[in-house]
Amino acid sequence: MKKRWLLATAVAAMVGLMAGSSEAKTFRIGLSNGWVGSEWRTQMIEEAQAAAKAWTDKGVPVEVVVQSATVDAQGQIGQVRNFINQGVDAIIINPNSPTAFNPVFAQAKAKGILVIATDAEVSSKDAIYVGIDQKAWAMQSAKWLVEALGGKGNIVVINGVAGNPANEMRVAGYREVLKTAPGIKILNEANANWDQAQGQQTMQNLLATYPDIQGVWVQDGMAAGAWRAIIAAGKKDKIAATGEIRKDFMTVWASEKLTSGASVNPPGVMASALNVAVLKLQGKAFKDGIFGGVYGNALYIPIPFVDNATLPARLKEAEGKPGYWSVTATVTPEQAAAFFK
Amino acid sequence: MKRALPSALSALPAALPAWAITAAALTVLVIVNGLLQPGFFDGTVLQSNLTTFLPLVLVAIGQTYVVLAGDIDLSVGAVAALVNVVTVTVIAATGDGPDAILAGLAAGLAVALACGLVNGLLIGVVGLQPMVATFGTAILFSALALRILPQAGLPVPDAYWQTYGGAVLGLPTVLLILLLAIGFVALLARRPFQTWLKAVGGNRGGAFQSGLDLRRIRLSAYLISALFAGFAALCLTGETASGDPLLGQSLGLGSVSAVALGGTLLSGGVGGAAGSILGALLLGMIGNVIFFAGLPFEYQTLVQGLIVLAALAGGVLVARRR
Which of A193-197, B3-7, B53-57, B265-269 has the lowest mean pLDDT? Predict the structure, then answer.
């Protein structure tokens, strides 16, 4: 019985070798996601799978292996270990911690595996980051708010989870912009944990506490909740507030004629990272001095913006998509080639 | 049909321990994983798997003694987080050398014992309900961890995680830790303390009347549990090379599941830590096999839950037969 197994394996291996010599090598890429529970993450994985298929259709076979579950940093390290033991060519990870992966990424690199973090930056020198600059994301919408208010007025801020690295980068971003606008006064900065319902509740409290609010800077999906509170208070025409990028919200934005603007953190970041990964696996070398960011390992990608002028076009893109669909953008293989020599 | 399963089970030897199903399931999973994953039995792959499983194994060992006495410790994950941030903070404050690392380890374990003391006093002496009390202290310990290190960071010296990922005395460090833990379990199994624990868990009134010091025994169990959560935290620090106040959140219920899978009754009085080690390894292997079986990721968590339930149900059927 055992001999037969060995024989079958040997034959399979030989067939595989012969097939391999005539066809292009298949790149195996592991995708690790450590948090389930928002459609944004689902869309992120689906777009990465679609990007892999596009490569395959072009004659560059790319196979993705997905691990996606709500785990803590330790559990996600287990996901990475499985990829290493499986012998993938590259790992793309939306990491649960900025620092906890340093040793396991070092192990991956020692085995010649390319590691790319996306959506949240990591401190490891053995990995690179492909995604948006969270600070620039916040600065863009803060600038919009300053302009929408004509440079003066009272505003409130609703942030995500205190202590979360992305949140802290965003806070630094809008503060830097608001420092240059002396006419803007921040009445209060609250945390609502990136939860839509908490965002709505917090906005209700702020509206009740400060009758004279002209502007709101609020992050992500909490914007939908905050705007609901603003509309319910009958103040939608007197307040300018940042928005978010899901179809459901954009529909309300258009029908209620809100004054809003939203920086886009596109779910296509993982697909963008995959396109960069495949080019690297094909043996290309990165241009010198191209990496930036706090850890010096980041490739920042463009951050789209939606405002009242571009909203109709964005809604047109969203036609036929489900309500939770997010405005997205991907760095195409052609665009990604600009990162390489 | 309804009786077919119990009667089939009754054909098994009567002396079969409750963790036998877990041991059998573990063996099957190891074989299946070996077939699915070429190279599973390579030294480096085994070591990497053990590194993943070790924290839960350690916490499950400590949890067993609490459960044997009829109590429960839901705070182990929070204890691990607190020990982790204290260790990295102390190391960062005292420098980079071996002295700093030793100071960090000592401070971490001291904090673990302090946490165990708080739990033990609240439950053994004040008389609070174990589940509610440790749920409460978990919130307290987590809040302290966030207070000490508000954001993940503070890398430990390379020597720390390189030693943990490497070898000591020719053995992989993780294997050495596992062997030491098994040694502790074997030692304690021969001591009267474990018999007292079972007496306290199985028949608390009787244990009291026979003159056992219930407070002291239950307090000791919580000290052991917290100490092992501390060991797990030091391992996690070696694995992540940094501090993270949100570390170890899955350890609490994970360790209780491992203890139950290992054949220890959650009502107390019956069981042992050897089974819990098997239970923790089984939980880890289930995740591995599901991954290497190539199941679509949308179904992985679902299948994992079903296998854990099946293993638990198997254990219960074996236990009920007697």
Answer: B3-7
Structure confidence at residue B38 (pLDDT) = 84
In A, residues 4-63, which contact B (CB 8 Å cutoff)? Answer: 45
Residue B287 in contact with partner chain A when CB distance is under 8 A: yes
d(CA A306, CA A144): 10
> Please, are residues B24 and B282 in contact by the beta-carbon 8 Å criterion?
no
- Please tell me the distance from the alpha carbon of residue B18 to that of residue B40, in angstroms, as a whole number: 28
Instruction: Supply the pLDDT for residue B96.
Output: 80
CB-based contact, B49 to chain A, within 8 Å = yes
Class for the domain spanning A2-132+267-303+324-339: alpha beta
- A2-132+267-303+324-339 and A134-263 share one fold: yes
Facing residue for A72 by CB, picked from B49, B165, B247: B247
The confidence score (pLDDT) of residue A16 equals: 47
Query: Tell me, what's the pLDDT at B311?
Result: 83
Residue A136's Cβ-count burial label (10 Å; 0-12, 13-18, 19+) is middle
pLDDT above 50 for B284: yes
- Chain B residues within 8 A of A88 when measuring between CB atoms: none
Q: Which residue has the higher pLDDT, B96 or B285?
A: B285
Contact between chains at A77 and B292 (C-beta distance less than 8 A): no
- Using CA atoms of A139, A141, A142, A145 in order, give the dihedral in degrees to the nearest 10: 160
Answer yes or no: are the C-beta atoms of B149 and B89 closer than 8 Å: yes
Ranges under pLDDT 70 in chain A: 1-23, 163
Of B239, B288, B294, the CB nearest to A74: B239
**Chain B residue at shortest CA distance from A97:** B152
Which residues have a Cβ under 8 Å from the Cβ of B31 and sit 6 or more positions away? none
What would you measure as the largest C-alpha separation in chain B, in angstroms?
68
C-alpha span between B219 and B268 (Å, rounded): 15
Nearest to A246 by CA among A315, A303, A191: A315
Positive or negative, the Cα torsion across A239, A244, A249, A251?
Answer: positive
Domain map of chain A by residue range?
2-132+267-303+324-339, 134-263
10 Å CB burial of residue A51 (0-12, 13-18, 19+) is buried
| Tokens found for residue B309 | 């339930």
Cα distances from A98 to residues A110, A117, A124, A181, B92, in angstroms, run: 20, 10, 8, 32, 18
Contact between A163 and B146 using a beta-carbon 8 Å cutoff: yes
Locate the domains of chain B by residue range. Answer: 4-320
Shortest Cα distance, chain B CAs vs residue A107, angstroms: 10
Question: What is the dotted CATH code of the domain comprising A134-263?
Answer: 3.40.50.2300
Specify the CATH number of the domain B4-320: 1.10.3470
